[in-house]
Input
Amino acid sequence: MAQQLYLSKLVLNARNPAVTKEVNNPYQIHRTIMRAFPVDLSKDERILFRVEEKPHLSILVQSTICPDWEPIVNKEGYVLAEPTIKDLSGLTFQRGAIYRFRLRANPSKKIKDKAGKTHESKRVGIYNDTECTAWLERKGVSAGFSLIVDSLIIKSAPYRTIFIHTANKTQKATINMVDFDGLLRAEDPRLLKQHISIGIGPAKGFGCGLLSAAPG
Output
């Protein structure tokens, strides 16, 4: 039986003050999105999202649970239309076929201390385009795809500094977000679909990791 997979699209009202505030802070977007899902989600569940600025301001949300967008629709003036939900459970790829893709990711690497031991919790961003390309190529090896490198376009995403507000304090996080657009080749269709489901790279709770692919 195919794994359930859903892709939602929410077209936002760019003139709404709440929208304006939240699109500048992916942490707040994440909190809003999670209102469409059960509180007691499995720890293995991945809610992936990406803010799209063109052709209109919108959020793409991918999940293995079908969301209930009523709490979002009920936020007065937040969305311009009823959210759409596509069932991607039957998504398939052909080995060797070329697909257009888009990915907002957090290219980064774990750092080592003076003794050469890797810190699991500490990462540094990768900013050089050549190194970003190499990072994505490495991810592709484990995710069942290879890059058509000549097609790759790399741009800085609009988010860098994010403020996380909790009941007791406000934390500042700096995240290197990069937009990748280009072509990929499906090397292992099963692995590719699996990694589309779970996302690519870290910082998924901040709008990174959602890989979109369509026939090239």
